[in-house]
Design a protein that fits this description.
Blueprint (H helix, E strand, L loop, with lengths): L6 H19 L3 H5 L13 H4 L7 H22 L1 H52 L6 H11 L6 H14 L4 E3 L6 E3 H18 L8 H20 L6
Antiparallel strand pairs: 1-2
Length: 237
């Protein structure tokens, strides 16, 4: 199967799988490469990129890599390896940027609610509590602790960039859904998926640990990249 994949897609899958397996056996690798907020003691500059190649579970990596292979293979064959890799990484960076911006707004709001003393307490003891499994009794302090110290992982932002590109280039191509198994045009699939992510992001349900704004960011920045290329006369398909 790997032999039939385009070069960049194949290497993306290999890197993601190797890092996922390594994170299961090497203590500390997961937080080292996850994307943390810049004031977290776990933050490191390389995480801006490395988070795109880390995953939190088998289902997470399987569905992301499945999407990268299905949609990315077509786009790489059209654009070539260099342009495809550029687009893939920029979509992931855009996803990370929007996620961290929303994180910043949430942290600022929670910090105002709990005051300077509560904020200082989270900064002082938050990482220790996260590592030991304990929590703050104050709900706002605990939410702030999660916002600061929880890492972001996954190729989902990159994948959503690929989805919007596929929808723009092949709007009327019919895709077969897995659940339920019915055909749907690419443009409706992408628009529907995007609308669901926006609703879930706005809802912000308790216990939902999916970075929905990262998905939206991948789509948004991917679309902006496509429009920029078009304005420069780049042929997309």
């Amino acid at each position: 199967m790997l032999e039939r994949m385009p070069l960049v897609v194949k290497n993306i899958v290999i890197i993601n799988v190797l890092l996922f397996l390594a994170s299961q056996v090497i203590p500390g690798l997961y937080p080292l490469l996850s994307g943390h907020y810049f004031i977290s003691p776990d933050f490191a500059p390389w995480q801006v990129v490395s988070h795109m190649f880390m995953h939190g579970g088998i289902a997470h990596i399987f569905f992301n890599m499945f999407g990268v292979v299905v949609f990315g293979s077509v786009l790489e064959q059209i654009w070539g390896p260099k342009r495809f890799l550029t687009y893939y990484l920029l979509s992931g960076l855009g996803a990370f940027a929007l996620h961290m911006f929303i994180n910043f707004l949430e942290i600022r709001s929670l910090a105002e609610l709990i005051g300077e003393e509560g904020y200082a307490e989270v900064l002082r003891r938050g990482k220790e509590l996260m590592d030991t499994g304990y929590v703050f009794t104050d709900r706002n302090m605990q939410n702030l602790n999660y916002a600061i110290h929880t890492g972001m992982v996954g190729a989902s932002g990159c994948l959503f960039g690929l989805l919007i590109a596929f929808g723009v280039l092949f709007p009327n191509l019919e895709l077969m859904l897995l659940f339920p198994p019915i055909p749907i045009k690419a443009k409706w699939f992408v628009l529907g998926y995007g609308a669901i992510e926006i609703l879930l992001a706005i809802r912000n349900a308790e216990g939902d640990n999916v970075a929905h704004f990262a998905h939206i960011g991948g789509m948004l920045f991917g679309y902006l990249i496509l429009k920029y290329w078009q304005s420069r006369g780049v042929r997309l398909n």
